[in-house]
Design a protein that fits this description.
The structure holds two protein chains of two kinds.
Chain A: H1 2-8, E1 18-31, E2 34-47, E3 51-55, H2 62-69, E4 77-82, E5 85-86, E6 95-98, H3 110-114, H4 116-120, H5 125-138, H6 154-166, E7 172-176, H7 184-201, E8 204-208, H8 212-218, E9 221-225, E10 232-237, H9 252-268
Parallel strand pairs in A: 3-8, 3-9, 6-7, 7-8
Antiparallel strand pairs in A: 1-2, 1-4, 4-5, 9-10
Helix pairs in contact in A: 5-6, 8-9
Chain B: H1 2-26, H2 38-49, H3 52-85, H4 87-102, H5 109-116, H6 120-144, H7 148-156, H8 161-198, H9 204-213, H10 217-245
Helix pairs in contact in B: 2-10, 3-4, 3-6, 3-8, 3-9, 4-6, 5-6, 6-8, 8-9, 8-10, 9-10
Chain lengths: 269, 250
Amino acid sequence: MQHLADLMAPRAGPEAAAAIEVAHVSHVYEGRDGAVPALADVSLAVGAGRFTVIVGPSGCGKTSLLMMLAGLRRPTQGAILCAGRPIPDPDPLRVGVVFQEASLFPWLTAVENVEFPLALRHAPRDERRARTIAMLELVGLTGFGGRYPHELSGGMKQRVAIARGLVQDPPVLLMDEPFAALDEQTRMTMGHELLRIWSQTSKTVVFITHSLTEAVYLADEVLVMSARPGRIIDRIEVGLPRPRSYEMMATDLFGRLRDRIWRQLRTGN
Amino acid sequence: MRRVTLIAARLALLAIVLASWETLPRAGLVDPRMLPPFGDVLRMLVELLGRANVQAAIAVSGAEFLVAFLVAIPAGAALGILIAESEYAGEIFKPMLFYAFSVPKSIFLPMFILVFGIGFQQKVAYAAFSTVFVVIMCATAAVESVKQDHLLVARSCGATRAQIIRRVYVPSMMPVLLEALRLSMIFNFTGVLIAEMYASRTGIGQLMANWGENFQLRQLFAGVVFIATVAILLNESIRWLEGRCSIWRT
């Protein structure tokens, strides 16, 4: 794993022990017309506790990348380390995942959805209840635990999904366009809420989005990917102070960062 | 309040139908030999249910129905799940199944008689045959109704294969499976009755066919009322279950 150390070298500040390391990962899948290269030689490192956002055109393989970070898919080539170890299979104690809309089980209440991962490993009832109640409080849903998903708004459903991703307290949280299906206003609120939850839990977050504003608003660092086969074509350090506020969106710096991502996306195609 | 009015209106409709059935033949507006009054039919039904030969016929038909059901449901469900789970099997078998499903099953009755005779076996075989296709199709639909997103979530939460089946497949498929149960019950019931009416020595279907041929319309209508009541009760009890299991399907 010499190359991993090389990769980390320029970035390894005192605060940034890497939570996720991706070295020369390629992914090829079998489509209808033969092999399709989805990712080409992707390398990246995410420091512990950092908020990293990945943007890229549709079909650029960013979801594939996230799946591999979650252990849901294996890379064709290259190595992935998550919290210091390879992740050949899903491991909810290391990595929590929040998917796009409608990933809640409609036959379970909010509480039962959140405690689903705990139920799978037969955690004691007391522990389940305590953790679930704490998570619902964290995401601001105290009192809504008994509701079924169809009785919750889009934003509330994604809060439940976040609570489910965090319920086993994994160091890493992966999010695949979690707010894409929400209306603009709810989306802004949820972004803000996510930052609050993140600052309270100090997780390492990898977040995929199509929204440039969302990317700059949330991220410590934005990774821009090219069209398929996906490569990382730019890494943009977002120097905005924290906590972030809505007013920052009107600043010059915010605009310049967003423009830079946009230019990279256009030329990268 | 609106719900109460609705129920009242439905009961009123039923009352009107039954009252017309009672009064029209009595008033001579309908030939009472072709449509005996409802009251006479009910009295005949009570009398028939007390007769030993009718009770035996009901027992035979019920047994045929049950056995055919127990053959068709597991066989159809297993085949349907197999086809849905394997991409290749699906591509190969699905068109054929759709063709087979669209063919009226009753045209095969003479074949079943040649192979199985006209006894218990033949009724069961024919009823199971006429039911199994709808079970296969429903089982396939049930598997396909499982959302990929839910499977991914379960895997990311560390679910084992067995846990995924129990905690994702089964609850996802439950509403479609209950629907399948309901449909297959109707097909199965029809299969048993048709086979009995076509050629048999016993069973309700055979009694009905006999009553019709002998112009015993009070008995015939008593049979109609009895079979309709049983079918509606079976159907509604599963619909009630469906309603309970699918509160989330909105």
